[in-house]
Write a structure and sequence with these properties.
With 261 residues, this protein is an alpha+beta fold. 26% of the residues lie in helices and 18% in strands. The chain has a six-stranded mixed β-sheet. A two-stranded antiparallel ribbon has the order 1-3. It starts with 14 loop residues before the first strand and ends in an 8-residue tail after the last helix.
Length: 261
Amino acid sequence: MRSLNLLPDENESFSRVSRTDKGVSARMNALTIRLNVRHPHLSISEVQKIYVKELNKKLKNIRIAEVQSVPNIFDARLNCTHRTYVYFFMSKEYNMKRMEEATKLFLGEHDFSNFCKRRKSKTNYRRTILKFELRNIDKNFHYFKIKGTSFLYNQIRHMVATLFLVGKGQMDNSDIVNMLSGSCAKSKSYKIADENGLLLYSFKFSDLHFNVNVNNRIFSSVMNKYIQSTILLISLCYPLKIKEKNENLFENISDEQEVLT
């Protein structure tokens, strides 16, 4: 944006729907930022199309889908009503039934202070989980689908880590209930779930309509590579064989209209 002289100020601030950790992927994201209008003789819609084209020429691993004018008070983070994440993992050792039952404990509003990286400036740890499901792609490849109004830093990776412990029999539902009460410290020490399995899948605004055309085949190809890489890494533990590639993987995940179009 600086190279295209789009920013009115060198230190122009911006707001985004989600700040993903290093290693975490995003199928889509959105941000609000003030931009210069370099073509005053053109309509706003024409300027927006020009900016999309110019920005995409500068980008390599991401693509700008749309630039849209919003009111000055609009904030991508604060005006987002909910975000949906998916977390992919492979295993033969987890008790999936126990894990699925435990996901229901997170539904609703809770104190998630024991499920995040605490910061001195953070005082409100209450968050609302709207959906938490365990799904399978085949008998060895699974994913969690988590929808919430907002999330704390590392919250999803902490929740997934405790579910893995439940699946291994090293933690039970009462441990999660106690941790959600916020009145006790973590009942067990554990390492948070790996960042590479987490993906920001979609989000929704209450008062903004925009069109985002995401090529799901690209993500399907990426996930097939992820599956094969995972098989290679754990092949010494047990052999796996993917019978067929699921090209409709991301269409299957999206069983509802998450983003307004």
